[in-house]
Design brief:
heterodimer, A: 353 residues, mainly alpha, ABC transporter involved in vitamin B12 uptake, BtuC, 75% helix, globular, B: 312 residues, 2 strands, 77% helix
Amino acid sequence: MRNKMVLFEVVRTALTIAIALLLGYLILIFATDDPNTAFKWFIYGPISRLRRFVELLNRATPLIFTGLAVSIVFQAEIFNIGAEGQLFFGAVAATFAALYFPQIPFLHVIIVLIFAMAAGGLWAAVPAYMKAKWNASELVSSLMMNYVAFYLGLYIINYHMRDVNAGFLVSYKFPRTAWLPRLLRRYNLYPGIFIALGFAILVWFFLYRTKYGYELRMVGKNKEFARFSGIKVENVIIYSQIISGMVAGLAGAVEIMGLYKRFVWQMTPGYGFDGIIVALLARNNPLAVIPAAFLVAYMRTGALIMGRMTGIAPEIVMMLQAIIILLITAEAFLSFWKKRIIEKAAMEQEEKK
Amino acid sequence: MNELVHGILSPQFFYSILRVTTPILFAALAALLSDVAGSTNIGIEGMMLMSAFWGVMVSAWTGSAWIGLLAGVTSSVLLSLALAYFYLNLKTDLVLAGIAFNIFSSGATVFLLYLFTGDKGSSSSLKSYVLPKIDIPLIKDIPVVGDILSGHHVLTYIAFISVFVVQYFIYKTPLGLRLRAVGENPDAAQSVGISVKKIRYISMLLSGLMAGFGGAFLSMGYVSWFARDMTNGRGFIGLAAQALGGHSAFGSMWGSLLFGLAEAASYTLQAIRIPSEFTNMLPFIFTIIALAIYARSKLLQIKKIKEEEKKA
C-alpha cells in the first residue's frame, strides 16, 4: 500500500503540472496571435543552449535552499513563512562579511557563509521565540519580519556599503577571496548548485537520521503526543525555525557571491515564497526538494526566455505557480482514487485474516 | 526639532493619519469578517491588488470612476468566492490557498497590465479616474476639526462608517450571530441546523467586499494609477491590526489607526531627513511588538482562568 501511495502522490503531482501547463497554454492563446511559438520557447527554451541550461542551474540553486528551509518548518507543522526576509538579511550580512573581513583565500568564503547563516538564523529566531514563549502567531510575525529585513537591509546597504561610483544602488564589489569562482570559462556556472545539493543531503540526514530531526517530525505529526512522550516541544519549535532560517540565509549569500559579486537587490527576489511552492511539490522531503526546485526553476527560466523571444510578460508563470499550489494542497483533488487505494488495502488485509 | 513638533501637531498630520489608515482599515474589517466565522483570509492582499487593478482599468475604459469601483470590488468578491471554493469544497489548506491567490494576483495584474498598456511598472499612461473627495457641511467650517475631518476621500468615510455597520452586523443581526456561532464551534453550529459551509461562504464574500473597497481606494484615491504590487503589505498589516483588536470592529479600527499613525509619522520623519528605509520599517516593527504584547496578555489571561478553575 505504501508504494501505491507514493505512486499516487507522483501521479497527482504530474497531473497538477500538466493542468498548470495546459492552463498556461490557454492563457497564451488569449494573449498572443502565435501561442505555439511562445509555448515552444517556454518548454524548450531552458535546454535549447548550454548557456540557458546554466541559467537554469543557477536559478535552481536559491530555490533548493529556500525549499529546504520551508520543508524543515513545515515538517514541524510551523507556518513560518519568513524565508524571504531571512535570505535577504543573510545576503546583507554576507555583504558585510565579504567587505570587511580579512581577505584570506578560502577561509573568507567560509566566514561569509557562516555570517549569512547566522543572520538568517537570528531572523528566524524572533518569531520562533515569540511562538514558543507566548504562543504568538508565527505566520504574522514572520511576515512582518520579512518587511523589517527588507527595509533594514536596504538602509544598511544604501547608507553604509553603497558603491557611489557604480551608477546603480549596489554595494561595493566583493574582494576576490569572497567570490564563488566560475567553473567554466565561457559559461557563468558557479559552485552554488553543488553547495545546495550538499545541503539537501545534510538536511535529509538531519531530519531522518538524528534524534533532533526525529523529535521535529514527531512534533509536526502530533504535538500533544510528542509532549507526552517527553519531547520538549518548545525547544523543537525554536530550533526547527532557527535551522530553517540558517539554510534560508544561505540562499541569498550564495547567489550574490557567485553571480553578482556584490549586493544588487533593491526588491526582495521572491525566493522565499518560491520555497513554499518547492516544499509543497516535494511534500517536505529534502531529497525531493531537488527535482522540485529544478521544475520551478525550469518554468521560471522558460517564461523568461519566452519573454525575451516573444515579448510576453514572464509574470504569466506566477499564475501557473499559484495553480500548482492550489491543486497540490487541495485534498479533494483526486481523493476518490486515494480512497480506493486505502479501501483496497483494507480489504486485502481483511482477506488475509 | 521644531520642525518635527510643528509637523506632528498640525491638522494636516491628523488628516493624513485618516487617509493612510483607510486601506488598512478596510483590510482589517475584511480580516475580521472572515475571522469571526473561523477562517483566516491571507488572500486579502491579493484581493486588494486585483480590485486596485480592475478599478483603474475599467474606469479608464468607461470614463466613470464609479463603474471602476464596481468592477474593482466585483473582481475582489469573485476572488474571495474562488478562495472559499478551494477552501470549503476542495479542502485546500486556507493559508496556503491564500498565499497562492496572492501570488496569482501579483502575477496576473502585471501580466494583464503589460497586455493592455504595454507597460509593466504602472498604468500611468492610462487616463483613469478617481473617486471624489467630500466636504462635510458645517463641520468643514470649524477650525482645526474641519481641516482634519472634512475633505476626505469618499471611501475614507465609507471605511469608518463600515466599522459601525460591521459591528452592528456581527453582534445585532441573526446572520451575524450565525457567523459567530460557526467561528466559535462549527460542530455545535452544524448540530443546530446551521450550514457551516454556507455561512463561511458568506463570511468570505463579505471579506472580499471589504478588501475590494480597500484596493479601489489605493488606485482611485490614494493615487490615481495602478502600480505593480502597490498594496505593499497592507493586506497583511490589516490582518495584524485585526489580530490586535480581537473580534470587535472597533478594536480593528483602533488597531488600524495605530498603524496609520506609524505610517503618517514615518512621512513626517522623512521630511526631517531620517532615511525613508528607516521610517518605512517602523510600522512593521510596531506590529511585531504589538503582536508580542497581545499574545503575552492573552496567555496570562488563560493562565489566570486556569488558576481560578483550580481554586474553585
